[in-house]
Amino acid sequence: MPAPETSAPQQQQQQQQQQMPQNPMPQNSPEQEPKQLPMQAKQPLPRLPPTKALHAPPYPLPVPSNTFPAEMEAWQGDGDPAQQAADLEAIEQRLDGAEAVLGAAQAVLAAKRAKRASEAAMQVTRVLRDGEALVQCARRLLHPRHVVLARAHTLLVDACATILAAASRGQAFPDVAPNGHEHHPKEPHDSSADGGQSPAGGRELDPVAVAMLLLRAAHELRATQDLHCGAQHLDTAKLLLDMQHALEFLLSVAPRQLFAAFPEQYGTFAKASKADHHLKQEHVRISSLYR
Description:
This protein is mainly α and 291 residues long. It has helices at 8-19, 39-42, 81-110, 114-141, 147-167, 207-228, 234-253, 255-261, 263-266, 269-288.
């Protein structure tokens, strides 16, 4: 006897029942396998780079005067306040002009423009002489850690570093007097007469004396920076690099003069070499915080 024919809806229902599992497991069963997550979600999150310890901006921002330690605004001795203020203003004006001249001369020397290099070298030497005179004036008026005296020391260090860098490339620096006239002494200048601080040596500056002057000014500047900038500031890193270059130069060309001039800091080859290595390491450490 032929099987009874089924309608189309019945056939579709039978096909669906055949496709279903024989013993379907309830959805809330504990034996049900969890839903597979995409492969990307299983991968560990990428490690973020460590945050840089920026304790100061790359270059110092203007700081209100009331944030300076007291000695950075103190006067040297007693005097007429009005006269002291006038003298301080005159020093700052001269510093403004010298810093502008030095910056322009540094740009010319860095660009290696041969036609203007001699003129730029003369300007740097004048700034060096003016810096020496300004330091002497400020010392009589201000506390050794005064911020304006620190500006004068910074000017002196920058001028010396510029001279040493350009002299290593063969640039000559004729000696001049602070008033801008060329300095042509009848006899070679004896630097021991002024404590070895003046780099005068005849018609051209003596690079050894310039390096000595840089180190002396840098030691004073570093003591002032420790009061305000701290050990992480980028200005401190720059100063340490200038000191390291001067120290390395003196170790190579005039070690005995270096040992005699700085017996405590660099009195022996071992002391000087250790200091040179320390300055280099500290510069790298501080500079890495700003990269």
